[in-house]
Amino acid sequence: MIYLDSNATTQVHPDVLEVMLPFLTDQWYNPSSGYRAAKVVRKALETAHEQVAALIHAKPEEIVMTGCGTESNNAVLSFAMAGGGTMVTSEIEHSAILRYSDALCEKYGVKLEKVGVDAEGRLLIDDFAAAVKNDACALASVMWANNETGVIQPIQEAAILAHEAGVPFHSDAIQAVGKMPVDVSQVPVDFLSISGHKFHAPKGVGAIYVREGVRFDPMLRGGGQEGGRRSGTENVASIVGMGKAAEIMKAKLDADAHAPIVQLRDHFEKRLTTELDGVTVNGSLTHRSVNTSHVSFQGCEAAGLLILLDEYGVQCSAGSACMTGKQQPSHVQTAMGISAQQAKSSLRVSFSIFSTQEECDAAVEAVKKAVGKLRSVQGGPGVGPVQVYTGS
Ligand SMILES: Cc1ncc(COP(=O)(O)O)c(C=O)c1O
């Protein structure tokens, strides 16, 4: 199978697995215990904090390990909105922001202001500037890179505007960390969310960056782990794995080793747009994650394309993985003003450090075959409900 769904999750890097295994076998000790064997485990956790911090140019003590990216986002919102007020965010956030803030609105009367994006999928920065000037604004939260389109948001500008208005700033950087430079010494975020499984660590581990001097009260209280900022006995093996993954990705970013991924993405799009009619690449072409291609195929329903592609050995996604199976245009595409028809005919293809040129070319051939087949049976643009034809 050719895996081109790396925004959904990534394969655990073999070197990551190797460093994790001892903590699932011999070194099972509770890192909070007093004996020497436990200190080895505690040291490994400290190293992981250093490695994750180095990836984003932070200090180890600014990293709070969590159970996933969703928890990181929820924990920041839970703390920052505890006193009520307005939260300013964007229309294109992940559900780990949007659904949690909806719950805050229902339960605690928090007000939510969602700023729109332009046709390229980038935050309307003037609207954002106006929104954060609201006196009741208690937090601004804007994602670094969108999970569906890969479009990178003007985080530096947004963080500065929020601070000028006296508002703390959070970024869900889950689709950015490990894939592109994220440097908190340059970009003045107060909080930032990270998820390990998006950069070759296992699933079920994440982190929050909390800038030194910024107050942060925990969502989980108990044994006082993570400096009292996230209680719960640590998922040691996964945290150690995320540390190693951070080290690997930092080395690759420092060596510009992500350049081949850009070439694959661009080659994929160039071949499709020249060899097929009715293909549109969505989102900003200049402010985009190196690995993500969001493409619409006129006259084809994505649900049908996905099933055919799976049959032809290619795994990718329609919009966000969470939306797969639903016949609704995603909120991201709606916010960008993409028509419902075009939205429903969009695929998200996301490459990783393991993707190869051969896979890319084989995927192009598979997409061409699937599009040709669907267009022949669905009859071009404006077709009705999706039907999937799996016969020869
Ligand atoms: C932008 C974004 N935020 C949050 C999440 C949730 O992260 P996790 O799966 O680690 O809970 C994801 C995962 O798809 C994401 O893409």
Automatic annotation (TrEMBL):
Keywords: Iron, Iron-sulfur, Metal-binding, Pyridoxal phosphate, Transferase. The keyword Cell division does not apply. One of its GO terms (molecular function) is cysteine desulfurase activity. Its EC number is 2.8.1.7. It comes from Oceaniferula flava. Residues 2-362 form the Aminotransferase class V domain. Catalyzes the removal of elemental sulfur atoms from cysteine to produce alanine. Seems to participate in the biosynthesis of the nitrogenase metalloclusters by providing the inorganic sulfur required for the Fe-S core formation. It catalyses: (sulfur carrier)-H + L-cysteine = (sulfur carrier)-SH + L-alanine. Its cofactor is pyridoxal 5'-phosphate. It comes from the Bacteria. Belongs to the class-V pyridoxal-phosphate-dependent aminotransferase family. NifS/IscS subfamily. Coiled coil: none annotated. This is cysteine desulfurase.
